[in-house]
Amino acid sequence: MPIDAVNDFVIRFANVNGSGSASANLLFARSILRMGVPIAPRNIFPSNIQGLPTWYEVRVSEAGFLGARGGADILVAMNPQTFVQDVASIEPGGYLFYDSTRPIAHLLTRDDIEILGMPVTEICAAEYSDPRQRQLYKNIVYVGALVALLDIELGPIEALIGERFKGKDKLIAANLGALKIGHDDAKSRFQCPLGVRVRRSDAVSDRILVEGNFAAGLGAVYGGATVCAWYPITPSTSLAEAFERNCARYRVDPATSEKAYAIVQAEDEIAAIGVAIGAGWNGARAFTTTSGPGISLMQEFFGLAYFAEVPVVVFDVQRGGPSTGMPTRTQQSDLLISAFASHGDTKHVILIPDGPGEAFEFGASAFDFAERLQTLVFVMLDLDIGMNAHLIAPFRWDDTRAYDRGKVLSGEELETVREFGRYNDVDGDGIPYRTLPGAHPTLGAYFTRGTSRDRFARYTEEASPYVDNMERLLRKFETARGLLPRPVVKQAAKPTRVGVIHYGSTAPAMDEAQALLASDGLHIDTTRIRAFPLALEVAEFVHDHDQVFVVEQNRDAQMRTLLTTDLGIAPARLTSVLHFSGMPITAGFIVREIASRLRRPASAQTLERVS
């Protein structure tokens, strides 16, 4: 039976990279959003050049479940190269829309889906003489057909075309013409609408569609960052670009056109972090943005920032590793290398947003934490958060909020201090007082070094001052534990002794999985970790549950490792659910993994399941 669903389906577009399909697919997605129906679009694209396969997926969910779902109810097959594998991804009862200009009957082997063939290439060849126009408007033609098939209102998509090409009347008319060609042809060729369709709703409210990298870059602006030093790398490049665009809007003097920011595209990742640390030492709020390979290269400088206690922020938009790995796929596999970055004994502060909303919030607050704690702070996004658009509540900012510069002595304060020691813990919280260059002509100066020193920044290799300094750094780490964002707990509707720990981009899938498990009579409490060092509430959560799962998107159970080392939780208390294919984790995967173990006798359960 054909799928029958209103405002609850997944549609996947299979295209060729560089064909101009991206803007048409986004136009389609936004038209559904304009009808008041929540969407979650995702790009799945190659790391190589034009001509390779690319996919664009839109999950439509009036119920608000916007994590990746897996499978497709409708497939728009515009790439013969991947036709067979694309058709295999269609759910039973789903729909295949394809370009039937060239006969491919021998590939249409499934009898459990509805097949909709339209000669899109042939239609465009008859309508347009220019080859480039044929290719570009082919995308709008199939969008027009989908508008008819899915009962999407024409008004919103026509308005979007008008906004997209504002001031270019010829382009508006041409795109509206291509849209009408596809719409009218589908109306005459197929029985419209399909069982899967869109109906106007009011489930979007004031939410906005935004990418995590843009949100983090904007957060850095609001957080007072004035220096960005970076080197291009997928998938973090657009974060630096977002910072630059927003600085151009908010950090330029309207009277003089003077820029109140500096952006340095360095020769490599090592230089980028060096510039950022230098700016942080000089009193600027500075950051770099990178991904796994960059994190590997920056290790020695991370140790300098930790040991010399220089505030700096690093945005890590994680991708599939190791080595070059999968540059355009997502993972949570940089957790351990960031938590203990550099040689020797180090522990770094990490913030872990669940999407663009927290990417904005943490993108701003990271600079407060870096200066308050005088240390390096990582903000850990991933490709799914960073490069995909998510539907979130509008950004909020309190204009009365003051930046937390931490323990910085002014020139006046230096004159009242009996004795200044750059690494002297006078308050017992592990955080010493610092000065900025130029604060006073004769007081507050010290030598910044990566070598061992005493409380007054004097070089020494004696054991006692070294141990004193390293133990103080541990006290500072414990101070950080009480300052950072607390975990988010979601309790089941009924009392349960089963708990799930998760973090980052796993959140949308986990929220949906919790609801699906409850509908099947399996109730779980969840807690979402948002920072490292880990909050003590996480240990209490484990203590309060007999069985605890840790869901994460890496092979080696990296968060589980942190739970055991940072909180002293016995490894046997934690059962890993691991997903590391490079595709976003789905609620279905989580449900299968947890349900199968909850229904299995305890003695038969394995410690970990790697998928």
Largest β sheet strand count, sense and barrel closure: 7 strands, mixed
CATH architecture of the largest domain: 3-Layer(aba) Sandwich
The CA-CA distance between the termini, in Å, is 31 Å
Q: What integer is the average pLDDT?
A: 95
Inertia-based shape: globular
- Determine and state the CATH class of the largest domain: Alpha Beta
Category by helix and strand content: alpha/beta
Number of domains: 4
Name the CATH superfamily assignment of the largest domain.
Pyruvate-ferredoxin oxidoreductase, PFOR, domain III
Radius of gyration: 27 Å
Roughly what percent helix?
A: 25-40%
Number of contiguous helices = 20
Q: Largest beta sheet: what is the strand line-up?
A: 11-10-12-13-15-14-20
Flag low-confidence runs.
602-611
Beta-strand content bin: 15-25%
Number of strands: 23
CATH topology of the largest domain: Pyruvate-ferredoxin Oxidoreductase, domain 3
